[in-house]
Amino acid sequence: MAALVAELLAETMKAYETHDVDKAVSVWNRDEEVDEMYTSLLRETLTYMMEDVRNITSSTHGLFIAKKIERMGDHATNVADWVHYLVTGRRIEGGRPKGDATSFETGQAD
Question: Into how many domains does the chain fold?
Fold first, then answer.
């Protein structure tokens, strides 16, 4: 997940430098991949924690790290949307593709 987010951040900066709208839209659409990875990791880690309570502390730290990386992907997506606006004068149409429904399940907004 970290490698994908690093790639998205690099692509976002490249889109900004070159005013490449297509690259910005591509990053914007790929946020869903990061969200799906995070959700999968979350579910797998929770299962691991339930199997043995001794795993809770280290797993919790890992989940905090994973959430921060997922948020970095969200920030890359936001910048990609700004690049699109910078070049075209309009926001990317439609809602951002989301592969992570966990924030909606808890009632928290991103």
Answer: 1
